[in-house]
Amino acid sequence: MNIDKSLVPDAATIEQRVGEIWRDVLGVPPGRDDATFFELQGQSIAAVRIVARIEDEVQVSVDASVLFEDPDLAAFARMVVAAAGGQA
């Protein structure tokens, strides 16, 4: 997928949107922002949904395989911000 680099938001905005997408797709209960992808019962369909929404809503291309490294939200958001830096 080709991403329009001029549409990639700043790091704080990326982190906020990634958090919203993560919580929505994984149904994160209150107080569980430190839980990892697998602790939240993440599966392949959730990984695909998360990265598709990030590409659509944040304009950053991320490989779904990074979610199978079992990151928590903070680590995953850093990965997305780093990917955005490589696309900017």
Structural description of this entry:
With 88 residues, this protein is mostly helical. The chain has one domain (5-87): ACP-like (Non-ribosomal Peptide Synthetase Peptidyl Carrier Protein, Chain A, Orthogonal Bundle), CATH 1.10.1200.10. Helix content is 52%, strand content 0%. It has helices at 11-26, 44-58, 73-87. The protein is globular, with a radius of gyration of 12 Å. The model has no long low-confidence stretch (mean pLDDT 90).
CA gyration radius, whole angstroms? 12 Å
What is the count of DSSP helices, taking H or I runs of 4+ residues?
3
Morphology call:
globular
Task: Count the beta strands.
Answer: 0
Give the H and E element order: HHH
Oligomeric state: single chain
Give the number of domains. 1
Unreliable runs: none
Query: What would CATH call the homologous superfamily?
Result: ACP-like
Mean pLDDT: 90
CATH names the topology as Non-ribosomal Peptide Synthetase Peptidyl Carrier Protein, Chain A
Approximate helicity band: 40-55%
SS class: mainly alpha
CATH second-level architecture: Orthogonal Bundle
CATH class identity = Mainly Alpha
Strand content: under 5%
| Through-space gap between termini | 15 Å
